[in-house]
Write a structure and sequence with these properties.
By secondary structure, the protein is an alpha+beta fold. Helix content is about 25%, strand content about 30%. The strands form 3 sheets. Strands 1, 2, 5, 6, 9, 10, 11 and 12 form an 8-stranded antiparallel sheet that branches. A two-stranded antiparallel sheet has the order 3-4. A two-stranded antiparallel sheet has the order 7-8. It is flat.
């Protein structure tokens, strides 16, 4: 008859501990409010990270090769949904594709991964000058921009540098695969001259449309 009494007593102690823990974690207590604040902060970080990865990304212009369109220190907002969100690809178990696919238009300023960098760590900005089916003159030779309709492995584009001082474009890299294109540059969020201190060098380029 002793065992049931011990079990009942232990059960009561467990219940008492659970009740005390619930009171301690209650939003009415300081510990509860702190824990709730930490949880909200973590959720906010996750949401911001997901938003950044799936919707928009801000890139910083480094150097003066994109002048006069861009200046060193410009923070450029790139819309990843402009041509459809990229999914799958070389680093994924899924094949490459785009959600809500849209056509890349001539004249668009596009952000794309430097094809010379296998890990996609370097991002370039160029203007689209030719789309699949267009012809371009390369070193005196007329070439057709390849595309899926021509049985190519993807649609390709001819992208040209925004400034004469930057030769890194299709003249050097060749046709750029759609798989490399991240999205369209839409705004300059803000701009700060990297040669100036934090309190100086701010330019009047806030939310400048491209």
């Amino acid at each position: 008859m002793d065992n049931p009494e011990i079990i009942t007593e232990n059960g009561g102690r467990v219940e008492a501990r659970q009740t005390a823990l619930r009171r301690w974690l209650s939003p009415k207590t300081t510990a509860g409010r702190v824990l709730l604040f930490i949880v909200h902060c973590l959720l906010l970080v996750v949401l911001v990270f997901a938003f950044r990865m799936l919707a928009f990304t801000v890139y910083t212009v480094d150097g003066y090769g994109l002048s006069p369109q861009f200046k060193a220190g410009d923070r450029v907002l790139v819309n990843r949904w402009s041509y459809g969100l990229r999914v799958g690809g070389d680093k994924s178990v899924f094949d490459y594709g785009r959600l809500c696919r849209r056509q890349i238009k001539k004249g668009d300023i596009v952000a794309f991964e430097d094809p010379r960098q296998k890990n996609g760590s370097k991002v370039l900005l160029c203007r689209c000058k030719a789309v699949p089916g267009d012809t371009v003159n390369v070193n005196g030779k007329t070439m057709v921009v390849p595309g899926l309709k021509d049985c190519a492995d993807a649609d390709y584009f001819w992208l040209e540098a925004l400034g004469e001082g930057n030769p890194t474009d299709s003249r050097q890299l060749g046709f750029i695969s759609e798989k490399r294109i991240i999205g369209r540059a839409t705004f300059i969020v803000y701009s700060h001259d990297p040669k100036q201190s934090l309190f100086k060098g701010w330019r009047n380029r806030l939310m400048m449309s491209l």
